[in-house]
Each structure stands twice: as C-alpha cells, then as structure tokens.
Write a structure and sequence with these properties.
- It is globular, with a radius of gyration of 19 Å.
- An eight-stranded mixed beta barrel has the order 3-4-5-6-7-8-9-10.
- The chain has eleven helices and ten strands.
- Strand 6 (149-154), helix 6 and strand 7 (177-183) form a beta-alpha-beta unit.
- It is 40% helix and 22% strand.
Amino acid sequence: MPLTELVHYFNKRNRLVCSAADEDCFAIVDGQVQARFRGNVLTTLFQPVVERASGHVIGHEAHLRVVTGEWAGMAAQGVFLETRDDQELVYLDRLARTLHALNFLQEREQHGGFLALNIHPQLLRAVRGHHGHAFEATLARCGLTPERIVLELADDGFDKLECIRGAIDAYRERGYRVAIDNFGRHTACLDRLEALAPDVVKLDRSLIGHAGHLSLAKRVITELSGEIRRLGAQVVGQCIENPLQIQVAQEAGVDWLQGYRLGRPAAHCLPVVRLRPREAA
C-alpha cells in the first residue's frame, strides 16, 4: 500500500480510538513520516546493530525524537513521563511503534534486516493480555511481519516475573523476537533471565564501563556472555563509544555490537548486507 494511503488509514483509525486524534496524527514531511502528540512533533531515528563476527549491519533500533514543541530535545523516557495516565501512555507507545514501522517501510535497503522497537514497561502492566495482537495488525498494513521485529523490554527485577514472562510468551507465539534491554543495570540474576527466556540480551553500558578497567570489564562480559548463550540467547554489547570498548566486546565474544562508535541514530538506516549464497551456506 502506498505511504500516503497508509498514513490516511492510520489517521482515520486514530480518530476512532482517541478523541484528540484530530491534532495527534501522522503526516509526511520531506519523505519521512512524523506524528503529532499533544502539540509536539515526533519522528524516528535509526541506530545500526552490527554483527561482531562479520562487521555487517544486520538491523536497526528505532529511537523516538521530538522535533518541535515544548518537549523538543527531550529523551524518549522523559516524553513517556509526561503522559497523564496509563491509557495515554499505551496510546503513545503504540503511536511511536506505528511511526517507526512506517518510516522503516521507506528504507529500501533493509531487506533481511530487523527493526528493534522499545516497549514501555508500563504497557505490560496496563495491557493484561493479547500482547502483540494490535501491533501485528499494524505491521500487516505496512507489509511487515513479526519475524522482522525485535521487541525490547527493560527488566528492573522488581516486576512480577509472571507478568513479564506472560508478555514474552505472547509476543514469541506471534513470531516476534524479544530482547531484555540493559541487563545488569538493576539485576544480573541469571535464574530470572532463564525464566524469562528472551531471544536477545542487551548488556547494560555499566558493564563495559568507560574503558578504564578493561581487564575487569572483559572478565565480567566474557563470563556473562557465556552464561547467556548457554540459556540460548544472543548477546549485545551496547553503548560502544570508543575503540577500547570495541576491543573488550570483541574479545569477550558478544554476538552483536551497537553504539555511537558504530553509528549514531540517524534519519535513515545504513544498508544491510545481503549475503551471497556461498556466504549464507
């Protein structure tokens, strides 16, 4: 479906679910989709994820950016703190993911690449069941499938395990891959991680440090990476900002790399390398 028709469809749908949708709607500006939310204009930035072994870009994480309005320049976490209640937070979370899917759809060199999207933790508490169902319908309209999506969930270790595990199971049943983000910031409990059974684990930036204690960072990440792989998940070293951190992550054997040193969030994706038959064999 052409982008203009998709934008028209989602604007019409939003008017049915939100009384304020006349001003909270999508628009195409210079070839990129923007969304309005409470007088603020939102758009998408893409940050590449690189496979350590090959050095190839294999996917991108979408970040929410406030272009204009009183929240301009505010981090995404701050924008969600401005929501008035759970209902508005759920609306914003779904609005942002739809925005990112529409913009990802326009990236022509993403065949075979994945799109990583953040799920706000409060959405798991506010929405009790059928996780991923509504977004699957959105993806279908955009010609995308859950198999191309990695949903990132933050776990602070305090939420009920059953709540998060139930959501992960529901997402995976629909074909999404699920990542636990910032593992090690609040808890590094491997028993809890084993119970959650994610597909991907993103190590917190505190584990790789600022390259001031390379030997310690390498030992910690190497040990954690080995344990996480034993649980069947892939490991991401994120917030890579300098060559020494790349060295630590590479020697520790993480699967994927992400950070400013490898690519800053930008309006467009970097090309995903398409493997030749011999390379894929």
